[in-house]
Design goal:
By secondary structure, the chain is mostly helical. It contains 4 helices and no strands. It is elongated and about 60 Å long. The termini are far apart.
């Protein structure tokens, strides 16, 4: 089977341009929709895995910081942690008042 490039599908939205969608047969459109759904789920699953492994990642990073990180690496970690706390506090204030102030 020869494969043809159909066009560009946005990686952020997975929207298929109308000029491409209008040329697809029903089975091709169905296959494309199923493929796009797989990629959408994969992106969400990557975020879920990152979230669920976050505590372990933090422990590993802190161990590295304690046992050999350079000063510039320590600054990157500290900056990231401070930014994360800023965002969390902002979300908490917006959702529940000032619980973490």
């Amino acid at each position: 089977m020869k494969r043809e490039r159909l066009g560009v599908v946005s990686k952020s939205t997975f929207d298929v341009p109308d000029e491409i969608a209008s040329t697809l047969a029903d089975d091709e459109a169905r296959d494309l929709a199923e493929t796009i759904e797989v990629y959408r789920r994969a992106g969400q699953m990557r975020k879920q895995v990152a979230t669920l492994t976050f505590p372990e990642t933090v422990r590993e990073v802190l161990e590295y910081v304690e046992n050999g990180a350079s000063e510039s690496e320590k600054k990157v970690v500290i900056t990231s942690l401070l930014e994360a706390m800023r965002v969390i506090r902002k979300l908490e204030r917006e959702e529940h008042g000032s619980l973490m102030a």
